[in-house]
Amino acid sequence: MFSKTLVLLGALGLVSAQSFTNQNMTQFSPSNKTLACGQTHSDTEYVVALQATIWSGGSLCNKTINISNGKGLSTNATVVDEFFTGNAEDLELAPSLFRFLTGPGVDVPNVDSFLADWSWVN
Ligand SMILES: *[C@@H]1O[C@H](CO)[C@@H](O)[C@H](O)[C@H]1NC(C)=O
Ligand SMILES: *[C@@H]1O[C@H](CO)[C@@H](O)[C@H](O)[C@H]1NC(C)=O
Ligand SMILES: *[C@@H]1O[C@H](CO)[C@@H](O)[C@H](O)[C@H]1NC(C)=O
Ligand SMILES: *[C@@H]1O[C@H](CO)[C@@H](O)[C@H](O)[C@H]1NC(C)=O
Ligand SMILES: *[C@@H]1O[C@H](CO)[C@@H](O)[C@H](O)[C@H]1NC(C)=O
Question: Which UniProt key words apply to this protein (predicted)?
Fold first, then answer.
């Protein structure tokens, strides 16, 4: 049973214990378009895009991840889109989520990226 579960998770490329450290977070605007997962979302939702390498043909759509900025701020976010630049475990964050995780006192217009840790929640 246990090994079958591991095999299944391995086949899905989704091991729930998997987490990623110091990955590059940038912004994207989800608003006013149908995203790769087939839904629309606003800039104020806590939604993310995955890099093409780990996109897995859309099978990770609607999965929840936990993103931590390494400075005491973390939140759940939902996978809704795909992007093609950067590295496999980088994320693109919707504007309100990016604003939240940069933390108070940071002048966001001057920040194009920051490093964060993330993991699969479900
Ligand atoms: C993160 O992405 C931004 C925007 O593409 C880039 O300018 C920056 O060099 C990247 N940082 C790292 C550490 O990869
Ligand atoms: C998205 O569309 C709404 C309604 O048409 C508009 O008010 C808003 O400015 C648009 N947002 C962006 C980022 O283009
Ligand atoms: C993602 O969730 C939305 C809203 O609950 C749902 O309509 C959509 O079918 C889901 N997409 C996938 C690929 O599961
Ligand atoms: C995200 O994960 C970190 C590290 O395990 C944990 O401390 C934090 O409470 C989690 N955040 C949420 C919103 O679940
Ligand atoms: C994060 O998502 C997990 C799984 O859905 C849930 O159990 C947990 O309560 C969520 N944390 C927050 C702070 O919403």
Answer: Signal
